[in-house]
Prior knowledge:
Elements: E1 3-8, H1 18-35, E2 36-38, H2 40-43, E3 51-58, E4 61-76, E5 79-94, E6 98-99, E7 103-109, H3 113-126, E8 130-134, E9 141-145, E10 156-160, H4 162-173
Antiparallel strand pairs: 1-7, 1-8, 2-4, 3-4, 4-5, 5-6, 5-7, 9-10
Amino acid sequence: MKQTLICSPGKKYNGASEKEVAKDYFKLGKDYHKLIRFDECCEKMRWVSDVDAPVAEIRGRTIAVRAYVRRDVVGVADLNGSFTFSEYLFGPRSFLVGLLPDLDVFEISGENSNIAVQKISDFYKAKGWNAHTQIDELKRRKEFVVQNLRSDLGDRVLIPSYDSIKEIAIANLGYEPNRWAFE
Length: 183
C-alpha cells in the first residue's frame, strides 16, 4: 500500500532570516539522508533530482518542485525492508540553497511502509515541523519532463499536483498558502 506524508514547517521559522532558514533546511536535508538507506543502484543518484520545475507563483516568487521519483530504499532508521520512495520538495526558489521549505511530500510503498512513514514523520516533528499522513494515494497529478538520464522513468513522470497538496495541508496542518514559512 502506498502512503503519503505531507510535512510543513508551520511557524518553526517565524522571524528567521532567509539565510537562517536556508541553512537550517540544508541541515535538515543532510540529517534526513542519514536516516534513509538507499539501495546501491540509487546511491549515486541520491542528490540528483528527476524534476526541478516551477509549479506556481505566490506574491511575486516562483514556487518550484524538486522531485526524486521512485527511488529504491532498503532502510529507514532501524527499519530494514524494500521500499519505493518518491520525494517532492515544494518551496520558493532561493539563490541561497535553490529551494526554501514550504511543503515536503513523501510517497512510500512497500511492506511496512506505514512504519517507514511514521519514522519520517517522527523525524520531521522532532525538527519542529508539522506532519500529516494520508493513507490513500493522491489522485490529482501533473505531468513533468524528467530532467536527468534515468532510463527507468522514461521521459515524463506524474507528480501530485501542488494544489491538491495545498488543500490537504490547509485542512490538516494549518498551512497558510499565502505566507512564507520564514515570515
